[in-house]
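User: quick one, fold this
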Amino acid sequence: MQKYDVIIIGASASGLMCAIEAGKRGRKIIVLDHANKAGKKILMSGGGRCNFTNTDINADNFISQNPHFCKSALSRYTQWDFIESVQKHKIAYHERSHGQLFCDDSAKDILGMLLNECKQVGVNISLNTNINNTKKIEDQFHISSNKGLMTSNSLVIASGGLSIPKMCASPFGYKIAEQFGLSILPTSAGLVPLTLQLEDKEKYATLSGIAVNSIVSNERASFRENILFTHRGLSGPAILQISSYWKPGESISINLLPDIMLFEHLKQAKQNQPQQKLKTLLVKQLPKRLVETLIPVSIIDQPLQRLSEAQLSTISQTFQTWQIKPNGTEGYRTAEVTLGGVDCNEISSKTMQSNKVPGLYFIGEVLDVSGWLGGYNFQWAWSSGWVAGQYV
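Assistant:
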């Protein structure tokens, strides 16, 4: 039997961060993971360059049934703390739009930093480890695995959610939570492309590959970034963002021309250049294929002088309040995060420990905390992992 102070399940961003912090406190730690490589989601994130945090982090950037839960961890280990570590390891990085920070070179730099720090504090990482059974006897957790029996005073679940199953995602963390009597809030795919109804899919299929800077909104949220037409539906940053706030059966509103008042623009053009064709005017603002798809053939080649004010109003609404009802999402296969998870009302925001089971901790994506696109989910991993590392 192998005895440890702390067993961490999941060599994830949060798991490795927790291991480093606990290791600094002199704890004997082992990190278990069923994958063949640590930090797989770190390596594939940000197109291989790892969008490791954001310069603008606050609780409003996160979705949870308990919206206050994340505040404590985010304030105690901030984006600036992680940036300081990145700088200390001399990892070159750059800022993109909306405060997103990426490695100049590779996500391997971030993973290398974490693994190096784990090594410095004596963390043992066991890969290809399958857990057969988990139980608590008195004040000790007993973990039975293909690598033998292990015990510890503290057990940390950092196994992530269901997003991107090819990266070895599994419901393991939820099963452990249920085993120990914790509540699980319904899970769904977040930060995920939206699919279209069959009729719309056929109508917009020819637009695949077109990207347009837009405002995408519903009753709960609004985001301005690119949308991307795909052969399955809609993707791009603005669509991924709104997907986390979208519910089946709802429509979303898309403003394809957020920088102009199109109705006023059309009326002015009609007055100044009455012979100009509607299509000629619109393709100055938007891709030709998109214009031809959204505007009826009967009026697209009409000169502006032949179009009534009511028609111009309808055209404006078509582009600036385009309503479309998605059929669904592409699911966990392409989702960047899992919405829902372990109920935060049953976890201490100060320590990440279960309120019901002393010594049992949950961190990262397994909890009901989901960030926006743009480095927010990594920051939650760093912050929640750091917090748990101070107490395990």
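User: anything notable?
Assistant: The first helix runs from residue 13 to 24.
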